[in-house]
Amino acid sequence: MRAAALVLAGGSGQRAGLGQNKVLASLGGMTVLERSVAALAPHVTHTVVVARPADRAEIMALLGDRVTAVVDGGITRHGSEAAGLAAAAELGCDVVAVHDGARPLVDAATIRRVLAEAAEGRAAVPALPRSVPLARWPTADAGPVLDDAMLVRRDGLVGVQTPQAAPLDVLRDAFARAAAAGDAPSEMLDTVEPVLRHRPDVEVVA
Length: 206
Known about the structure:
Elements: E1 3-9, E2 26-27, E3 30-31, H1 32-40, E4 46-51, H2 53-63, E5 69-72, H3 77-90, E6 95-100, H4 108-119, E7 123-124, E8 127-129, E9 135-136, E10 150-151, E11 158-160, E12 164-167, H5 168-180, H6 193-198, E13 204-205
């Protein structure tokens, strides 16, 4: 089985307030991106980083031969994922694990588990129980006051994490079906959501 890790590194860092792409920030003597790549690389055949064109040269110089390729991402997260999936297909990979490059502390056990599920033909999503309060505002202009919101019970809710893994052909087919159905990628929050929506024959496990 040939597995690829797709590391998404296309953010601008605007929300983090760092003045740079947050994956290029230093963390314990290495960049966040280097740590994310180092966590995934031992478990896969190929590591592909998906970057903004503006950061591509810097990332290639930073990572060198520690990755197979650095490819340009798209305008949206799912556009970047699609670019990474195309690169993995060119490399002849069977399964992919898509990881947020800004999550450098993912553990080896999680990586192994999602890849093992993908090798069995399933899609896999790491998940953690929600431990923070949740609220739903009744309308978009309801205002910032929490009293105006409806509190949501957290029973059975989880926080979705990465890496998310699936067979490459399944994920590419799900993306293609979503596009054909006019299912806007910008509205899909997670990598395997197109599988849930458009490949009901494929089991998605958390």
